[in-house]
Amino acid sequence: MGRKNSKKRKVKEKQRQPSSKLLKGVLEITRSGMGFVPIEGMDVDVMVRPADFNTALHGDTVRVAIKEVRSSGRRMQGVVKDVLQRKRTEFIGALQMNKGFAFFIAEADKPMPDIFIPLANINKAKDGDRVVVKLLEWENDGNKRPVGEVVTVLDVGNSNDAAMKEILLDAGFPLQFSDEALEVAARIPDIIPTEEIKKRKDTRDIFTITIDPVDAKDFDDAISFRKLKNGNYEIGIHIADVSHYVETDNDLDKEAYLRATSVYLPDRVNPMLPEHISNVLCSLRPHEDKLTFSAIFQITAKAEIKQYWLGKTIIHSDHRFTYEEVQAIIEEKAGLHAEEILILNDIAQRFRKKRFNNGAINFSSQEVRFKLDEKGDPIGIMVKESKEAHQLIEEYMLLANRTVAENISKLKFNNKPLPFPYRTHDDPDEAKLVPFAAFAKKFGHKFDTSSPDTIATSFNQLLKDVHGKPEQHVLEQLGIRTMAKAKYTTENVGHYGLGFEHYCHFTSPIRRYPDVQVHRILFDVLNNKVNPDKKLEEKCKHTSERERAAMEAERAANKYKQVQYMRNYLGEEFEGVISGVASFGFWVETIEHKCEGLVSVNSLLEYDEFRHVETDYCLVGQRSGKKFRMGDKVWIKVVAANLTKRQLDYEWVVAGELAAEKNGKQKGKKRK
């Protein structure tokens, strides 16, 4: 026993020892101005004083050298030696004019120096203007200030625009493309050379359509369809051939990699690639010849795959459908190209059924979207549910993604699996699963946690049983939280949620960089030119991190819109559902607007003192025994809407709840 503890102590002491090497990490600056750099494999962060930042800003990836080790296991002190990558180079703030120059003062909750702006770089901005400034240079010399240029003067009357831009910048997504990237994009020819067409399978004479949201402009994918003489169907999944236009390691490719994803906010898209490439050159617009990378299948009417082909193609889309148009054709069994769409849908539904029978988990998805006016202010809320038209596209995209991953997974290089950016999803987290199963049991739902397969079966049975019941929303949300996060990695552990042993992202290269990587590797494989990327796992980590940053930005923007919208209802009362519980209060999502706000535990003190019971996802009154549990319906009043903090504050309305109970009893009497 003693030897074991001694060993552990030695390991910890070893971890704390200063390294003569430079250590890599991300600089985190507190509001007080002190910096900390967490280092992978070390149990204590490296502390960096402001004088030792050496041009590094909050969120920058840096290399630090250890300059002092404190005693008693306290943090080591370090100094930043290099800034490897800046999280952001654009900032929002105010311009202050002086004679011969200007200064930019950033609006930031983390300390940062003022930026010097030469008069040639003020871009017609005036003293006091709120602007976006780009950091151009900052030499690692204590005597030199950062130098920047004004890239945008913000409209004082449009606070929404500034808020959306700040969300993007804070997440590390630049608002504009570099001049170098735009120059590369401008040199790409629009006309498809005849010699390029000759290298590809020509499918332009085969019936082909796209199905996308009504407001979409970047059409990544198209579906082709034709009946074969043997009675089977040929179904092609055609994906925009971005890798043909974006060459590896040029300035455009480097910027696309750094962004790694397009970001979709309620009123705008911040694209991974310049608009001309996203919306014109690569977008599979109707009645235009387009270069694509395709997976073409021969499929029976019973959705059995007889054979497939992968390769580069040229297509010509016959029609651009919206999801709503296709859904109408499916429901009414009539309309433009109804025969083809109904066959495609029947096969897609068979794929879907087979997928769930094989262990995929059937979480339902609701998407809340805002109806906006010309200024971007929300004037209404729409709830979109996944219907058969969406599922049609989803199933064919899943088929293509899975097939490409299966194809690559069979290959070896130097007797090892070929490095490839798989899209993986690990088994559920047992620590989260056990309390969830116990909570579900309180609603009468049994959960078998003995193996990953039985967990998936239990989830699907639960989701089927709770459909339409009061506890549906809470159990779905908690179930999703037990799941691991999907990510990109070269370690192929499969995709648990989809029930696939092999999976990757192949179908959206206009808006996701891993899909571009997949296209390049697949093309090399098909041409017997395998050249493994030794840094692929590091790139996978980067694209996974950028994906999470984009999701956070999208959540923040949606929250801003919720607060903006609910400002119109201050003082009004609504029915809602408890969507989360913590020791300091509980969150409620209004049924009418799907807008979430916090009921602080402090606002409940006049009724009782409440304690948090984690295992039951609830707050319990010490004297009254009153419970506020996830999934419960409650009445709330909107008391505050803070746009700066993107925060809604609600108060529990006792009278509203009592009135609802009384109303329910009266209805019950009437039914009798």
Topology:
Elements: H1 2-16, E1 23-26, E2 28-29, E3 35-37, E4 46-48, E5 61-68, E6 76-85, E7 90-98, E8 101-106, E9 115-118, E10 130-137, E11 147-153, H2 159-170, H3 179-186, H4 194-198, E12 201-202, E13 208-212, E14 221-227, E15 233-240, H5 242-245, H6 251-259, E16 263-265, E17 268-270, H7 275-281, E18 289-299, E19 305-316, E20 319-322, H8 323-332, H9 338-357, E21 366-372, E22 378-385, H10 388-409, E23 412-413, E24 416-417, E25 422-424, H11 430-441, H12 452-466, H13 472-482, E26 487-489, H14 513-526, H15 536-566, E27 573-582, E28 585-590, E29 596-600, E30 610-613, E31 618-621, E32 627-629, E33 633-642, E34 647-652, H16 654-671
Parallel strand pairs: 4-6, 12-19, 13-20, 29-34
Antiparallel strand pairs: 1-5, 2-3, 3-4, 5-6, 7-8, 7-10, 8-9, 10-11, 13-14, 14-15, 15-18, 16-17, 18-19, 21-22, 23-24, 25-26, 27-28, 27-33, 28-29, 30-31, 31-32, 33-34
Helix content: 25-40%
Low-confidence stretches: 1-18, 665-672
Rounded mean pLDDT score: 91
**Radius of gyration in whole Å, from Cα?**
28 Å
Q: Give the CA-CA distance, first to last residue.
A: 70 Å
Please describe the biggest sheet, giving its number of strands, its sense, and whether it closes into a barrel: 7 strands, mixed
Give the overall shape: globular
- Number of extended strands: 34
- Count of domains: 4
Strand line-up of the largest beta sheet: 12-19-18-15-14-13-20
Based on helices, strands and strand pairing, what is the structural class? alpha+beta
**What percent strand?**
25-35%
Our count of helices gives 16
